[in-house]
Amino acid sequence: MVASTQGSYDGLFDPALPGLTLTERLLVALYAARLAGAADLVAHYRARLQAIDANTALVTVAGQGNPDTLADARLRAILVFTRTLSERPVEGDQAALKTLPAAGLATPDVVTLAQLVAFLSYQVRLVAGLKAMQALGAGEPATKAVAATAGTMLPNPIRAHGFTNEVLDWKAWLDVVGIDSATPGQIAVLEESHPKAKVSDYYLFLVHQPEILRQRSTAFNAIMYAPGGMPRAERELASTVVSRINGCVYCASVHAQRFEQLAKRNDVIRQVFDDPRTAGTTAREQAIAKFSIELTEQPAEVTAGQLKPLRDAGVTDAEILDLIHSVAIFAWANRLMLNLGEPVFPEPSAQ
């Protein structure tokens, strides 16, 4: 996780990356960090801009001004999209995405920008969670973890408030890489990323920037599938909660299914779809859901005190670390799914 997170950072801010200039990328980072109230990251990205002698007026706009006033139509579109993707990703519809090509961004540049803003959302939450853990200090859970009960398998499918555990498809709003025209490097990254990547609009769109996708896929797979630490079903539960809060119907569907496959029950999924703020069939699940919402919605306000209910419910420090990463990676995943395409629901069955 550490190597792929660092690899994502290095790739996204590589001066040699074509398309968006390094200055544009750092302005996006400064603005996104400011919107999130992440003071440490604001200082970091401002210092990086100063180190390359970036235009002071532009740094001021990204750091404390209003991008809507920018005369530069390209940079204005970039920062307005950054604001939507950072603060209200569920509002990132097809019209919002297409302001970017209209401002002169090629499809690979759009992919870079979306991956960058989504990575910054991950970075903000990861830093906030790790700082809270550091403030809490090492310790043992107040209670011993107990094996999950069998729970209840409700009739399928579950549908509530526009969310479902049905299998959905996803369609990109801009052009994807055709598998017949993909380069050997792009094919290699697709094969590394997911077994179905070669037939998925999601991966075929993101592979416009293959090295960024490689690092992102490596991070995702390490966080969600690594052995040890928090049980995988609970990582999937947290991911479903985050997706429900962010309004990502597609991600909620996928990870509700994975929870059900791993836990052999879906009672808590119904609760998450109905009201994630009260979801959880046990004190441990309730603590996981509550912290997932807090880190998703207000990362700048997360404190050691918000980790204590997890310890009280029997969650170990290693499990808390996995939970922080799971919540943070879905700040990344949801923003890509919500702002680059849309879910496709199955056709109604014939009566």
Description:
The protein is mainly α and 351 residues long. The chain has two domains: 2-106, AhpD-like, CATH 1.20.1290; 131-344, AhpD-like (Up-down Bundle). Helices cover 62% and strands 3% of the residues. A two-stranded antiparallel sheet has the order 1-2. The radius of gyration is 20 Å and the shape is globular. The termini are far apart. The mean pLDDT is 95.
Architecture blueprint of SSEs:
Blueprint: H1 2-12, H2 22-36, H3 39-51, H4 56-64, H5 73-87, H6 94-102, H7 107-136, E1 159-160, E2 163-164, E3 169-172, H8 184-193, H9 201-206, H10 210-225, H11 232-246, H12 249-263, H13 267-274, H14 283-297, H15 308-312, H16 317-340, E4 341-344
Antiparallel strand pairs: 1-2, 3-4
- CATH T-level topology of the largest domain: AhpD-like
| Overall average residue pLDDT | 95
Give the CATH superfamily of the largest domain. Answer: AhpD-like
CATH class of the largest domain: Mainly Alpha
The side-by-side strand order for the widest beta sheet comes to: 1-2
Please report the total strand number as a whole number: 4
Radius of gyration: 20 Å
Strand residue percentage: under 5%
Task: Note the main attributes of this structure.
AhpD-like, 351 residues, globular, mainly alpha, single chain, two-stranded antiparallel sheet
